[in-house]
Amino acid sequence: MSKITKVTAVSTILASSVLLSGCGLFGGGEQNKIDPPKEVSYDHDGSAMEDSKTSKQEETSKDTEQQKVKTELYLIDKNGFVVPQTIELPNSEGVAKQALEHLVDNGPVSNILPNGFRAVLPADTEVNVNIAKGVATADFSSEFESYKKEDELKILQAITWTLTQFDSVKTVKLQINGHELKEMPVNGTPIEQGMSRAQGINLDTSGVADITNTKPLTVYYVGGEPGSYYYVPVTKRVSETKEDNIAAVVEELIEGPSYTYNLVSGFVPDVKLLDAPKLADGKVTLNFNKSLLGSFKEKKVSKSTLDALVLSLTEQKGIESVELQVNGSAKLLNDEGKPLSEPVMRPEKVNTGSF
């Protein structure tokens, strides 16, 4: 199957997915729950009294729900990509440490690991995390050194991106038994002073002979399979001469992932920007040709197209939301046929459910 045919086919399938708004965006969504019938007893004068046991059970259930916090765990999928999967973990004070503990093979993540994914840190690795002045220092036990060399860069990326999801963390340092690492212990990958998302994830340097005059841009493509699609961040190298990062991101989304990557883009190849992107007060406005609408006849924008744009563009500093236009008109609909009347913001967490 050609790349164009593959992209178009997947885009058509993804277009039928439900586009959710607000903090439910990019997730599988939650159906409204119907409260079970309550057990009721009656006192001597016939007044109804709610069963105290049932009431206590409901209160306990609510407390349990409130004690959960959605956390992005960067795991490795079956194709070897480092992918965020949002999982509910106990709401503890040491949430950053807990997140890294859930990256350990055969650790607490084992019972909640999504199908096709594996943890990135060697089994039995113990971890501690100290956060001060925007720097998270992750200190590992000696078991950390027992990983396979082909996983080394993925481990660095998974640790860095898992920790930098938290607002209090800007950069990451690594230690083993209290000793700072300057390079990774198995294959010697250098560890820059203060790892951050700027170093990228799932690096794609295909077609780049010399990265000297290039810069990194992270965009989101679609991975997975029918019934369990998810978004995969990929850092590509683009020429330094491309001064407009917003336009460059859109260009990379339209171009799609490398042929060697088992990923697709929700964009058809003939999508084009009609005007230069406009950025004001954290909102970027993009005016596309009608090809953005794909096969939709009612000015609908597919879920995969909208999600990819919002996730990719909000990786750029200063961008908080995205407003779309087609031929200058903002009167567009999402997959459900609801108006895209407000700029779309990035969700708090990515991949909260497959689609």
TrEMBL record:
Database matches in InterPro entries: GerMN
Keywords: Signal
Start and end residues of each stretch annotated as Disordered: 28-67, 335-355
Extent of the signal sequence: 1-21
Biased composition range(s): Basic and acidic residues: 32-67, 335-349
Keyword Transcription carried by entry: no
Pfam families noted in UniProt: Germane
Protein name (Swiss-Prot/TrEMBL): Sporulation protein
